[in-house]
Amino acid sequence: MNNFDKREKWGSKIGFVLAAAGSAIGLGNIWKFPYVAGENGGAAFFIIYIICVFLIGLPVIIAEILLGRTTQRNPVGAFKSLTNSRLWPFVGAMGVFVGFLILSYYSVVAGWSLGYIYESASGVFYSFDNPKLAGGHFNKLISNATWGVSMLAIFVILSMFFVYAGVQKGIEKGSKILMPVLFLLLLIVMIRGITLEGSQKGLEFLFEPDWSKVNAITFLEALGQAFFSLSLGMGAMLTYGSYLSKEDNIPKSSLQIVILDTLIAIIAGVAIFTAVFATGQNAAEGPGLIFHTLPIVFNKMPGGYFIGVIFFVLLTIAALTSAISLLEVVTAYFIDEKKWSRHKAVIVFGILAFLVGIPSALSFNVLSETKILGLNFFDFADYISSNIMLPLGGFFIAIFVGYKWGFDKVISELKNGSENLFEKHLWTISVWKILIKFISPILILLVLLHSIGIF
How far is CA 236 from the centre of its chain? Predict the structure, then answer.
């Protein structure tokens, strides 16, 4: 009996696509994309972002999923089975570690979103008439250590619930419910935004490019957003790919994941910018757009009470589907390599993720003066993982698939389940080869250098 016979499997192709898309679709799409676009000129940034997604995102996501399906292993085991080198399993170990680290502090922000479901439902937004007041309320909440740690705990428990139940009964079943609900709620918010008087300015901002605002930094920001938005470099796509069968079409599924991820980012942008412009708020607010500006937007728009509750529900769902994939990475490692049971791995590392996340939650209150290299614990964990480890992970995956694995073997594995695609469109192999061997690694290096502040 081989790994294909023993390992848990996705119950359906749509289950895998929704789960993988859920991993990619997170706070980066609904929180970060709108404010980064707002700071970089709107439509012009969006066009560059789309190009970057297909230059850097799609090639690497295909590579990650292929590594997982071929080996039927976690990130560490995948590299162990394909090479005798000690270096490459270390790359996989880095992915497992960074996934766990991101889960710990990502859950803090997700906890804020969870808490804001109650805040919006309680009607507290009605007392705000400007972003400064809304920002003051947000700062008051996150400065409350009990509130921050409690929201963190609840969110981690929610994530553990789905992973504990297994691939089919937990992650896949949950994704089949959560992802359609997320999409429906986001459509409701978008439609409401479009129907507001003055929303046309938001649509123009998003879809009429102003190239005069584009510079080198715009391209680097778009590259980074394209890379980070798709959950690359942390082993999530590799782990999800390990539950695929040989008959699954990886290029097709990868394209569907990329399209869903990008579509959600577009819809979120429309939903947010139409409402922001219609209510006369600042589209270039920055990271405070969600928690400082949108409460004012919801307060000022007709029906804003319900839209506010819906928005923070969908924001929490987006965060949850990503957190599930992060917890699954470390869970799969201990199941494969240490022969732990799924239940034991989920309980142990769910609790550890909560404990490691506590300093991040306390970074905005009791530990606000505690610094590591000038950063609080939350910012330090984010810097190490997002700015350094994720780009390095993505870079080494591209290098391994492009050079170390053996490209004939790579193409042979990739053709499984994709024969019709390559027979009808033989050029796709050549294009992917050029991207994964040359274009993607160079662009990921640019993301790394920009992330660490070299330019």
Answer: 10
Is residue 174 packed enough to be buried (19+ CB in 10 Å), middle (13-18) or exposed (0-12)? buried
Tokens representing 356 are: 């490691």
DSSP state of 211: G
The DSSP secondary structure of 13-73, one letter per residue, reads HHHHHHHHHHHHSSHIIIIIHHHHHHHTTTHHHHHHHHHHIIIIIHHHHHHHHHHHHHHTS
Cα separation, 226 vs 412, whole angstroms: 28
Please choose, from the candidates 187, 108, 83, the residue with its C-alpha nearest in 3D space to the C-alpha of residue 355: 108
- Two tokens at 284? 């270039």
Q: Which CB contacts under 8 angstroms, 24+ apart, belong to 439-442?
A: 439/55, 439/56, 439/59, 440/55, 440/56, 440/59, 440/60, 440/394, 440/398, 441/395, 441/398, 441/399, 441/402
pLDDT in tens, 121-161: 999 988 888 888 999 999 999 999 999 999 999 999 999 99
122 class by beta-carbon count within 10 Å (0-12 exposed, 13-18 middle, 19+ buried): exposed
**What letters, b where the CB count within 10 A reaches 16 and e where it falls short, cover 91-104?**
bbbbbbbbbbbbbb
Local structure of residue 245 (DSSP, 8 states): -
Residue 286 vs residues 125, 172, 273, 381, 439: alpha-carbon distances, Å? 20, 34, 13, 20, 30
The CATH number, out of the four listed (1.10.4030, 1.10.10, 1.20.1740, 1.10.1760), of the domain defined by the range 3-451: 1.20.1740
Structure tokens at 379: 């910012």
Count the alpha carbons within 13 Å of 332 in the hemisphere toward its beta carbon.
34
Residue ranges for the chain with pLDDT beneath 70:
1-5, 283-287
Round to whole Å and give the CA distance between 17 and 9: 13
Predicted TM-score (pTM) of this structure: 0.95
Rg for the chain, CA atoms, rounded: 21
Tell me the C-alpha distance between 270 and 408, whole Å.
Answer: 43
CA distance 38 to 443: 23
Q: Are the beta carbons of 392 and 448 closer than 8 angstroms?
A: yes
**Cβ-based neighbour number of residue 270 at 10 Å:** 23
Rounded distance between C-alpha atoms, residue 93 and residue 77, angstroms: 9
301, 126 Cβ separation under 8 angstroms: no
Query: What is the tens place of the pLDDT at every residue in 261-285?
Result: 999 998 998 999 899 899 888 766 6
Q: Whole-angstrom distance between the N-terminal and C-terminal Cα of the chain?
A: 52
**At 312, which amino acid appears?**
F
Place of tokens 């676009």: 37
Which run of H or of E encompasses 119? helix 87-121
Per domain, the residue ranges of the chain are: 3-451
The DSSP letter of residue 210 is -
